[in-house]
Amino acid sequence: MGINAIGIEILEIGKIISEAKCNLNYDLKKLRTEVINLFSGINCDEFGLFSSKTDSEVKVIREKLYTNLQGAKTLANILPHLDNIISLKKRIEKVQDEAIRKFFTVLLSQKIVEFSEKKQSNNFISSFLTYLEDRYLTLYGTLKLAERLNINLSEGKVNIIKGDCTEMNFLKSNSIDGILTSPPYFDALDYIGNNKASIIILGFDDDLEIGSTDKYFKKFEDYKVDLPKSSKDLINLLKKSRRETKSQIVENYLKMMKLSFKECYRVLKTGGFYAMVISKFHSWS
Fold first, then answer.
1. Molecular function (GO) terms listed (predicted)?
2. Distance (Å, rounded) from C-alpha 45 to C-alpha 99?
3. Considering the chain, what is the average pLDDT of its residues?
C-alpha cells in the first residue's frame, strides 16, 4: 500500500510465513494454474498414494520426528499422513514462482500443524486441497476489493529479516518511522514446540536449535537487566507463592522484553510511533 516495511522473525518458518502474508502481489491466473497443476492426476480419495515414490525421504523424516517428538501425541497423529505430506511437499518444491511456492509452503505448514495437534481421519491431500482453495478465494476477494477501491497493493516493499528484536544491529539508530509488534506470550504458547512437526517435515532444521520458547527465554537468565519495581514485585510474589520455576520464566521474559523495548527505542525516529498488540485476558497455569 505504498509503505516500505521491515519485519523481524527469529524462526525461519516464521520468516517464510511473514513473507507470504505480506506479499499480496500475486498473478491470480498464474496462481490458479499452479493450484490445478499441483493436484493434477491425484485421486484425493486414495490413501498412501505416493508412498513408493517417497520411501527414502519419508524414512529420514520419520527418524527425525521420532528423535524430536518421542512420546508426544503429535508423533502418533502425524505419522499416518506422512507419505502424502512428503509427496505434496515435493510437488510444491517444483513450483517455479518463488512467491507462489512460499504461499503453498505456508499453507502446507499450517495444515501439518492442524493434523499434528489432533488425530484426523480425513485424507490429508483432500483436506489440503479444500484449504488451499479457500485461501485462494480469500486472496482473490481481497485483491478484487483492493482493485475496486483503487488501492495498489504492489507499492511498497516488505523485507523480512531472520533476527532477534533484542539485538537489531542490522538497523541504524533513528531510522524507523513506526513499529507495530505483537510480542510473544511468555508461557501460553510454545512457538517452536507447537510447530515442531511442521519444522521437521519442511526441513527448517535450524529452528530446532532454539529448542523451545522457554529455552529461548532462558538465555536471558544471566543478563544484567534492571527491571522496574512492578516487575520485581510480580517476580517476588511468585517466589513467595513457591512458584520458583514460574518466577524464573517471568523474569527471563521481562528481561527479554525490556531489551526489546530498548532496541526499538534506539531504531525509532524521534516522534515516531510504537504500537503493541496485547491481549486483555491471561490465565495463570
1. DNA binding; site-specific DNA-methyltransferase (cytosine-N4-specific) activity
2. 29
3. 86
Instruction: Look at the block and give the residue holding cell 498488540.
Output: 277
Domain boundaries, the chain: 25-148, 168-187+206-276
Q: Give kind and range of the element (H or E) at residue 283.
A: none
As a whole number of angstroms, the distance between CA 132 and CA 138 comes to 10
- Helix residue ranges per DSSP H, the chain: 12-22, 28-38, 55-69, 73-78, 82-93, 98-117, 124-148, 196-201, 213-218, 229-240, 244-267
Angle between helices 229-240 and 244-267 (to 10 degrees): 170
Query: Which residue is associated with the grid cell 510473544?
Result: 184
Q: How many residues in the chain?
A: 285
d(CA 98, CA 248): 42
pLDDT in tens, 162-185: 999 999 999 999 999 999 988 777
